[in-house]
Amino acid sequence: MKKLDNQQLVSLCMQLRRDIIEMIAGAASGHPGGSLSMVELLAATYYTQMRVDPKNPDDPDRDRFVLSKGHAAPCYYAVLGEMGFFDKAEFKNFRQLHSILQGHPDAKKVPGVDASTGSLGQGVSIAVGMALGAKAAKGPQKVYTILGDGELQEGQVWEACTAAAHYKLDNLTIMIDNNGLQIDGTNDQVMALGNLRSRFEAFGFDVIELADGNEIGQVIDALEIPARPGKPKCILAHTVKGKGVSFMENQVGWHGKSPSPAERDAALEEMKG
């Protein structure tokens, strides 16, 4: 897959956001806020780092990606569709009965999806298992995963992080979509997470903190920092929930709400580019 330069990636991210809005509005169901906030994280990962081939999605030597925050599937589908893993005409079938593009990613149905996710906290454990398997087989695979910050309230996340450090999984990169909001309010209101950088460092991760996780250059620079031998990597990205749509930005109500036809049109108008 040909790598894109930063300006091309900025344009791509705009298209991904349009795809997300179209999918969710078409289904009248879905999660726009957290899908929009992670666009740059996922686009940079797939388009500048991962060894994947849309024509050979099951290549055993490919890199792996796990969307731990599975409700943000519209962003995942947008990236895979734009890369050519499946026909973008499928976008109109998002969340429809018998569609391959269900509300959470299904590895048995969607080419390019490496793990079925949706139960929060479990995806990072899957990613740790994949990275451990690659290490045991002395394989070339690198493993990437994106977690929501509200998801970090799940204890299983920290068990997985303990294992990642214990087994010295320097082939694992976890990214935190730290937009500060979750379905019931702010993270601090629901269950305060404390100093996440210090927390991940205490669990044995090499942490790279991004002041603006929606700035593609910052994300690429962080991804390209070589892993320290024996240490898993964490990219702690401060992002904006609903990024790219002014009336959705930093609004908790857009966690799992579909835009109306008028709101869809207004969002797409903002993203003409």
Could you name the key traits of this structure?
12% strand, two-stranded antiparallel sheet, Rossmann fold, 273 residues, alpha/beta, five-stranded parallel β-sheet, 10 helices
Describe, in plain words, how this protein is organized in 3D.
Belongs to the transketolase family. Pfam families: Transketolase_N. The strands form 2 sheets. The protein has a 5-stranded parallel beta sheet, sandwiched between helices. A two-stranded antiparallel sheet has the order 4-5. The mean pLDDT is 97. α1 runs antiparallel to α10. It contains 10 helices and 7 strands. The protein has a single domain, classed as Rossmann fold (3-Layer(aba) Sandwich), CATH 3.40.50. With 273 residues, the protein is of the alpha/beta class.
Short description:
The chain has 273 residues and is an alpha/beta fold. Helices cover 39% and strands 12% of the residues. It has helices spanning 6-27, 32-37, 39-48, 73-83, 122-136, 155-166, 187-191, 196-202, 216-224, 261-270; strands at 64-67, 143-148, 172-178, 181-182, 185-186, 206-210, 233-238.
Helices and strands in order:
Blueprint: H1 6-27, H2 32-37, H3 39-48, E1 64-67, H4 73-83, H5 122-136, E2 143-148, H6 155-166, E3 172-178, E4 181-182, E5 185-186, H7 187-191, H8 196-202, E6 206-210, H9 216-224, E7 233-238, H10 261-270
Parallel strand pairs: 1-2, 2-3, 3-7, 6-7
Antiparallel strand pairs: 4-5
Helix pairs in contact: 1-3, 1-4, 1-10, 3-9, 5-6
Region (Disordered): 251-273
InterPro entries: THDP-binding, Transketolase_CS, Transketolase_N
Protein name: Transketolase
